[in-house]
Design a protein that fits this description.
The chain is an alpha+beta fold and 79 residues long. The chain has 2 helices and 4 strands. It has a 4-stranded antiparallel sheet with strand order 1-2-3-4, with no helix packed on it.
Length: 79
């Protein structure tokens, strides 16, 4: 079904004002709202569909899905 979708993995979020954003450079650290080891959120077109963890396969990063959100739960979030 050749329907294009956007898939993103969210490690965490941070709210930062533009002044501080413009001061970021290589080596800067941005604090996120999650602790190390928490699962990533797997989003499709901005909708949470699963949780996962980072894995390395043949020197490339990947995501191992650990929990897929049920279709019923996804529909509830749309309303």
């Amino acid at each position: 079904m050749d329907i294009p979708v956007t898939i993103s993995m969210e490690v965490g979020r941070s709210f930062i004002n533009i002044r501080n954003l413009l001061q970021l450079n290589q080596g800067s650290v941005v604090e996120l709202d999650r602790v190390a080891g928490e699962p990533l959120d797997v989003m499709v077109n901005g909708t949470l569909i699963a949780h996962g963890e980072v894995v390395v396969v043949n020197d490339k990063f990947g995501i191992r899905l650990t929990d897929v959100i049920s279709q019923t739960e996804r529909i509830k979030k749309l309303k």
